[in-house]
Hints:
CATH topology: Arc Repressor Mutant, subunit A
CATH architecture: Orthogonal Bundle
Order of helices and strands: HHHEEHHHH
Low-confidence stretches: none
Amino acid sequence: MRISTKGRYGLRILLDVAAHAQKGPVALRDISLRQQISQKYLWQVINPLKLAGLLRVTRGAHGGYTLARSPTKISILDIVEILEGPVSVVGCLQAPGSCDRSNDCTARDAWATVEAKLKDAMDDITLQYLLERQEALGKTGGSYEI
């Protein structure tokens, strides 16, 4: 499994919004400048996050984006599944009928274990954890290299 630019940028965008939340809604233009992501591409990432209920938009002169959930309740797994689809290390785990050996395959069992551990690890890493890590490293609110 490989996380695309869309998934990586989604995490950076949400971290940026979370890091600047104390100042109120975060403007798309400001996210674009700090993260060095074009506004056109930001729309492609922000819309699914908004539709999934991770971001809230406020219209008007002082509008922008805020988190719709606490940073403790948003994990990397949430972000990746919204932007990339289900996390799967091999296709037969999502579609068991695609392989005649699915019921008796030891390798499939091994991949299922790997996938479960990967999902658990991704679910354990929240925006709050990453914000705290950034703060501990002395990096507050800049471009997130994730």
